[in-house]
Amino acid sequence: MRDAYIVSAVRTPGCRRGKGALAQTRPEKLIVQAIDAAIEKAGIEKGAVDDFMLGCAFPEAEQGLNLGRIAVQIAHFPDAVTGATVNRFCASGLEAIAQSAMRIMVGWSDVCMAGGLESMSTVPMGGNLPRPLPDWAKEKPDVYISMGITAENVANRYKITREMQDEFGYHSQMKAAEAQKNKWFTEIIPTRADRFVEKPDGTIVRETFVQDFDDGVRPDTTMEGLAKLRPAFAANGTVTAGNSSQTTDGAAVNVIMSEAALSKYGVKPLVKLVAYTTAGCKADEMGLGPMVAIPKLLKMTGKSINDIGLFEINEAFASQAYYCAQQVGLGDKKEWTVDSQSRRVNINGGAIALGHPLGCTGSKLAATLISNMRKKGVKYGVESMCIGGGMGAAALYELCE
Ligand SMILES: CC(C)(COP(=O)(O)OP(=O)(O)OC[C@H]1O[C@@H](n2cnc3c(N)ncnc32)[C@H](O)[C@@H]1OP(=O)(O)O)[C@@H](O)C(=O)NCCC(=O)NCCS
What is the mean pLDDT of residues 169-179? Predict the structure, then answer.
């Protein structure tokens, strides 16, 4: 089996659904900018790419049809470059990386691109027209329930209190604020965005501007402020806007190559994708996904939790992210708080502060993790997330010298 190397990994900023900087920008424009930046950083011609695999959790309307193919066409790739769209909900962007890497590993391709996209402003969570199978929905409604309720289930069943969730959310915000202030998000590409503005004469004009930062970060977050927020999903619940991932717009792209392609194009790799796996759990506590996927990944690769220098564990909700971290051996505060210099989990904050653009997230977290692994010289990094329907995904990356 050959190895698959990631040679560039970029993301747009993550911006708030409806209220944020990317809300009026078509999703195609976001993914095309990420593609162009990833190709430019890789230093190759567009024609060198064999295929583009795009992850998207609600691939419909503006981000529908087969946007994987449409995006490479809009980005002026030669007709020979193909594209597909893949959906594993919140792991779609990682699934795209894995499928592209596997294609390289078996020798079917030498250069592939993988990405993720979600404009939650454009297509709402659940899609525009959800149509659950009625008989199945009666027998087993769990696969269709709100993600917020699954977060409440995890909090209730595993005793993750409101205070624990808020504390985890607070540290996510503080880490992100620190990283933003110090300009540590070097994987972000300045992204052209549109906004529609009404002029005094009543006409609407489209203005273009550049957005280069995640706009959901709240540096002024306090534990007292978080404690005042009302439950978002259940009347007496503990899951709030302050301890849930934000709904967000964003895109990310990774370029992946074989060793032969590295030599051919004279490109230096960033990391090698060592392994990828998925694991299932109960749908009504889907947040436990990383708790089953990470140990499975470590077992597959003969690694222990202490061999891994950095983790990106998607913060779909604090209840599940915190509980999963605890269960895999990363619960100690030194692993995830802003005041710990030795923290390994979501070192620059997670989706509670930076947003979770569903299908983009797998690709986005890869870009963030790879950037941090390079800066800190960390040999092994793990990315993981929970997935609606009751799954987890996890991937192990190894730094290239
Ligand atoms: C929880 C949720 C419903 C909240 O939606 P929302 O009300 O639009 O959330 P917002 O981020 O706009 O926050 C609402 C308010 O809460 C308050 N708030 C949020 N975060 C806060 C913080 N850290 N400190 C203080 N107040 C905060 C603010 O008053 C904010 O209003 P403002 O933006 O006007 O200041 C939404 O974020 C959500 O559905 N998240 C989960 C998404 C999901 O399920 N993803 C898939 C996972 S598998």
Answer: 98
Mutation probe of ligand 1 site: the residue of 167, 171, 229, 239 with most atoms within 8 A of C-beta = 229
Kindly name the residue from 15, 56, 90, 324 that is annotated as catalytic: 90
Q: Do residues 308 and 382 touch, judged by C-beta distance below 8 A?
A: yes
How far does residue 169's CA lie from ligand 1's centre (Å)?
11
Percent of the chain at pLDDT > 90 equals 99
Atom of ligand 1 nearest to the CA of 388: 48
Dig out the tokens for 34 from the structure.
Answer: 């990420």
- Residue 199: CB atoms within 10 Å: 8
Best residue among 246, 281, 288 to mutate for probing ligand 1, ranked by most atoms within 8 Å of CB: 246
Q: Which of helix, strand or coil describes residue 160?
A: coil
CA of 257 to the centre of ligand 1 (A): 39
356 in active site: yes
pTM of the model: 0.98
> Does the active-site annotation cover 90?
yes
Give the helix/strand (H/E) hosting 174: helix 162-181
Identify the three-state secondary structure at position 171: helix
- Beta carbons of 255 and 38 less than 8 angstroms apart: yes
Neighbours of 180 (CB within 10 A): 19
Question: What does the pLDDT average to over 15-21?
Answer: 98
Q: Is 239 exposed, middle or buried (0-12, 13-18, 19+ CB in 10 A)?
A: buried
